[in-house]
DNA sequence: ATGAAAGCGCTAACAA
DNA sequence: TTGTTAGCGCTTTCAT
């Protein structure tokens, strides 16, 4: 077995308590004691047993990351990895461990419940796309603090970190308007998702504000994935748009494929703008103009928010909405 | 706070030990006691405190997943998610929690070391692409049992789960030969990676066995990513291959883009075969023939292997090599 | 500034 | 079949 506090105490000639104080950086320890003990800890490469610590303090220093794996999404979109990176980094910096929960949608509730009540995390973050209300109820019942990445339509007072999708969509559409495009089409996200809805609203707002007609034919609903961008764009082409705002980069990439297949040129014949600023966008031909969503940062922020929530048992609610920005590239 | 064993003991009129036995499904408890206690546990939705349990048993029922995030790779390839899914599923089925460690390559050692010695996992799985030997030494020094997904060139007696890359490449190349292609090119993986090396060897083996010339011009080294498939294919086209074996699906997809850009048809002008059988392959136009690597299953297997290792302290080494299979689609 | 001792919630001998 | 008891390795009062 590994060393224990007792070992360190013995070797240093001090008591367990003093060693504990040193490890936790508590005051009330003589400089000499601190030095000696620190030295021995280093030498023996000692690390306190987390289980014992957790038992004594009631805190386990671990947060959970709950991802209902809606298969297609997770598999095709780099979104999750960026998020995971940000979250992981934040955990590392705050000395928290990160527990990964990938749950299948079907058995969602039971499986989650089990974990939630096991007391193996101090709180959790969830990045789900298609919550239903019972699902949120389940989460609330756990009595664990949690933070949601990406809002939903529900009007609960939940902790969340989210992007300003409305502003992003407006940015994108306004950019197209400013460039002089007149027949601006959009491939939307699913209209039962908050982000999908808001991005469409932003598009409409801007057309309206600029006195452009909102033409039904130029609005078509996708599902955020590449394939749907391709098929939607094929349909749109019949109505001769001069620009397409795709509500996700993956759909924009799909749309670009369709446009190229139709032997049209980007942006001369049709401009394309995406949303998310995935690393892939820069590699497109031509590189894709898009709206920057700082996914990594949102992950990081979610952890920091959760930590705040955890030492704020007075029930304060933390909601952060991040502003996106425009990344101009050669597709517009 | 949540309930404790003691609470259940009190309410049921039995002792802590008996309740503990019931919870752990141990024998030697009367039917009546078991029923009563089970009922109360359900009613109170009691779950034993994991920290206490871990402290008492010395086992924490958690395994770590160590992923050195070589940024480009992780971000572009669905490989990791498939793997994570398989691993997560296996953990769930075996009542283990899964700790996620994404470590930056640079700070690899120190960061890992900290985690490794914290005693917060019973063992870990690592899916790294570019290990160096010092890295492996670090892992070994932790004294934690671990399983590697994907072998490396080192001749250690390590536990691993890997694909038979050689057989896969042979399958792919032979398929092209069987279809009558004569000028078969290959876009290889990085030659400093074991998988990259083996997949090239398999290609050469088959050409050789079929009396075909191995032409330098038809072999070009990529890095498994889509972009490199594209650029490599562009170069290859000058040498008029009638088929291309790409050592990864992502490269195959890149190659297909290059071929289409050259206004050539797949497979009439050039056939393409990939490797991995990512979900994406089926959606290509035309759908991509490829070698099936059961990534999900490998993840699952890795966990099972790790569990075996963990209750086999006699140092038995477990090495599993999985056979790939051919998935024929319209690109060949 | 330091130490003694109790206790966190559980498991696992050992007794009964 | 059941209960008693002694830890697991740490934190945290409370003395000193």
Structural class of chain A: alpha/beta
Oligomer: homodimer
Just name the CATH architecture of the largest domain in chain A.
3-Layer(aba) Sandwich
Rg of chain A, alpha carbons? 25 Å
For the sheet with most strands of chain A, the description reads:
6 strands, parallel
The chain pair with the largest interface is: A-B, 44 and 44 residues
Spatial strand arrangement across the major sheet of chain A: 2-1-3-4-5-11
Could you tell me how far the N terminus lies from the C terminus of chain A, measured between alpha carbons in angstroms?
63 Å
Element string of chain A (H = helix, E = strand): HHHHEHHEHEHEEHEHEHEHEEHEE
Please give the number of β-strands of chain A.
12
Mean pLDDT of chain A, to the nearest integer, reads 90
Which descriptors apply to this entry?
45% helix; 3 domains; four-stranded parallel sheet; alpha/beta; 13 helices; DNA-binding; homodimer; six-stranded parallel sheet; Rossmann fold; 332 residues
Can you give a write-up of this model?
Chain A has 332 residues and is of the alpha/beta class. Chain A has helices at 5-12, 16-23, 31-44, 50-57, 71-76, 79-93, 108-117, 133-141, 165-178, 194-209, 226-237, 249-261, 295-310, and strands at 62-68, 97-103, 123-126, 146-149, 160-163, 184-188, 219-221, 243-246, 271-273, 290-292, 319-322, 325-327. In chain A, strand 8 (243-246), helix 12 and strand 9 form a beta-alpha-beta unit. Helices cover 45% and strands 15% of the residues of chain A. Chain A folds into three domains: 5-57, lambda repressor-like DNA-binding domains (434 Repressor (Amino-terminal Domain), Orthogonal Bundle); 62-162 and 296-323, Rossmann fold (3-Layer(aba) Sandwich), CATH 3.40.50; 165-292, Rossmann fold. The first copy, chain A, contains 13 helices and twelve strands. In chain A, helix 2 crosses helix 3 (31-44), helix 6 (79-93) crosses helix 13 and helix 9 runs parallel beside helix 10 (194-209). The A-B interface holds A 1-2, 45, 47, 49-52, 54-55, 58, 60, 62, 65, 69, 74-76, 78, 80-82, 84-85, 88-89, 92, 97-102, 111, 114-115, 117-120, 227, 279-280, 283 and B 1-2, 45, 47, 49-52, 54-55, 58, 60, 62, 65, 69, 74-76, 78, 80-82, 84-85, 88-89, 92, 97-102, 111, 114-115, 117-120, 227, 279-280, 283. The first copy, chain A, binds a DNA duplex (16 and 16 nucleotides) through residues 4-6, 14-18, 20-21, 23-24, 28-30, 33, 48-58.
